[in-house]
Amino acid sequence: MFIKKVIISSLASFGVALGVASGGAVAQMNHEMPSENSQTTQFRRIEQPLWVKGAVTAGGLALVGLELWWFLLSKPKSQKAQDKQGIQEITVTVDGGYEPSYVVVNAGQRVRLNFLRRDKSSCLEEVRLPDFHIAKDLPLNQVTPIEFQPDEPGKYTFTCGMNMFRGVIEVQPTDSALQATPTTASQSTQQLLRTCD
Ligand SMILES: [Cu+2]
User: Fold this and answer.
1) Per the structure, how many domains does the chain have?
2) What global pTM score does this model have?
C-alpha cells in the first residue's frame, strides 16, 4: 500500500503544481497585457474536439480503475495442501515466482512442499523457509521435496535465496470448526493485505 500512497501523493502534487502554474500565467497576462486585443492574438485558445477530451478522460479513469483493482482487489491464489498418507502435500511450481504463492496447511501435521523448478534464472535456484531453518537448492526441471512440521498456527514465508520472490504458508489451527469455514482462506488473505499497510 506504500506504493499507492506515493502514486496518489505524486498525482496530488502534480495537480497543485499545474494549478499554481496556470494561476500564475493568468495573473501575468492580466498585468502585462491590459488590452483585450493583444491578449487574443498572442494567447489564442485552441479548442480541442469533444472526442479528444472524452478519450483523455476515459483513459485517465481506466488507469485509475486499473490501479485500484491492482492494489485492492487482486489477491494471491491460495491453495490447500492435500492429505496423502498422513502428510499434507502440495506441488509448488517455480517459474518467474511461485505458483501457488499462498499455501494453506493444518497445524500439527507434517507438510511436504514439492518444489518443481522450471525457471533457469539463478535468482530462484535456492528456496528458504527461515522460520523452519530450511535452505535448499532446487535443481532445474526437478521436483525437490521439502518437509517440515508446523505446530504453531500463523503465516510463514518462503523466499528465494535473495529474498526477491516470496510465498506464504498459512498454518491453520486444527479446530474442526475453523476448517469447515470455506471463507477462511480469503479472509486471511485480506488480513495479510491489511498488515502490508
Ligand atoms: Cu532471488
Assistant:
1) 2
2) 0.55
Query: Positive or negative CA dihedral for 141, 147, 148, 154?
Result: positive
Half-sphere exposure at residue 9, Cβ-oriented, CA atoms within 13 angstroms = 6
Ligand 1 centre distance from Cα of residue 160 (Å)? 5
Cα 126 to averaged position of ligand 1 atoms, centre (Å): 8
Q: Tell which of 73, 103, 119 closes a domain.
A: 73
Helix (H) or strand (E) holding 8: helix 2-32
Instruction: Provide mean pLDDT across the span 128-138.
Output: 97
128 Cα to the center of ligand 1, angstroms: 10
CA of 124 to the centre of ligand 1 (A): 5
Lowest mean pLDDT among 3-12, 76-85, 148-157: 3-12
Domain containing 20 equals 2-73
- CA 118 to ligand 1 center in whole angstroms: 14
- Same domain? 170 vs 125: yes
Specify the CATH number for the domain of residue 92: 2.60.40.420
